Every structure is written in structure tokens, then in C-alpha cells.
Amino acid sequence: MPDRSSPLLLILTVLSPALCCDWLTGYRDLRNRTVVLTRTTGGPVLDPGFFPHNLYKRVFSSEVQVQLWFIRENLQHIHDLQNRSRCSSTWNQQRRVELLQSLERQIQELGSCLKEPPVGTESRVLAKQLHRYYRKLRRQSLQPPVGSRQPGSDPGSDPGSDPGSAGCQLLRQVTLMHLNRMDYLRNHARHRAERPGPKH
Prior knowledge:
InterPro entries: 4_helix_cytokine-like_core, Interferon_alpha/beta/delta
Subcellular location: Secreted
Keywords: Antiviral defense, Cytokine, Disulfide bond, Secreted, Signal
CATH architecture: Up-down Bundle
Number of domains: 1
Helix content: 55-70%
Signal peptide: 1-20
GO molecular function: cytokine activity; cytokine receptor binding
């Protein structure tokens, strides 16, 4: 009797790992919920003029696994900033918890897609550039500008604790831009993962 399992095994071995990534093809409601939670925490959304467009352009032509890794790294940085930000302390607490949980869930799902994260030169360079970018964003959004404290003010106070402050609005606007660009990159990665041949 012929072995009918061989073709199936062959197909499974040549499938791109990205095709098995549930986050690429599903979780639309979760991604949309993250955007809604971020959008409804403040006023109108404006272009903050502070965004790593060059990094997204560079990753757009990278391998699918690098693109997924790049998205996960951004989500992790955003989660860390939102978690440390005092802006969230005056939001509806349920909304704050939901936002952090939605980010954590996406990070977890992307982690399952990256059983072997990229370790090449490109990912190392991108990691350094992302670290520098988010360090600068952290300074601008979470730390008060020099000379902003009033005499006699609480040393532990932070202008970022006001959800209407410039720092909070910057963090919110940049987060929304990242979420939108990451969704565009996700669609691009999904289409490339579905195409036969090398994922370059």
C-alpha cells in the first residue's frame, strides 16, 4: 500500500513558519481594539513629527521573520512606555488594563511565531536603532522639559501625569502611528508569506 503521508510531510516541511503565525491571519478584533483604546484616551490625533519612518521603509523589504520580529519589538517598547507612563493613572482604569493586556496578547502571539528570532546583522542594527529612538521618545514623553517645574512643586510630580499634557499627547499620537504602520507592515508580510518561493 503506498505511503500517502509522504506528500503531506513534504508540504509541512517546506511551509514558511510565517504561514503558521496566527497573528498574521487573525486577531483583527484584538488589533482594532488596541487602536480604539489608544485613540479614545485624548483629543484629536495630529502628526507628532517624531517617527522612525526610515526604519519602517528599511524593514519593508526585509524577510518576513525580520518584519514580525520588528513588529514585536515595537509593541514591546510601546507596552513598556505605556506601562511606565503616568498618563494612564488618570484614565479609566479598566481601559488602561485592557490596553496593556491587548498589547501583551499581541506580543505573546508574535513570540509564538518567532521560535527562532532573527539573529543576523540586520536585526542587531535595527535593535540598536529602535533602542535609541524609544530612549529619545521616553525622554520627550515621560520626562518634564528643563525648567518646567515651578518653585515649591512636588519633586515627584511629572507633567506627563496629565493626560492632556504635551508629553502624554506625544506618546498617544506616536503609539497610534506605530499601530497603523505595523498593521500595514503586517498585511505586507502576510501577502509575502502566502506567496511561494523565497520570502525576500
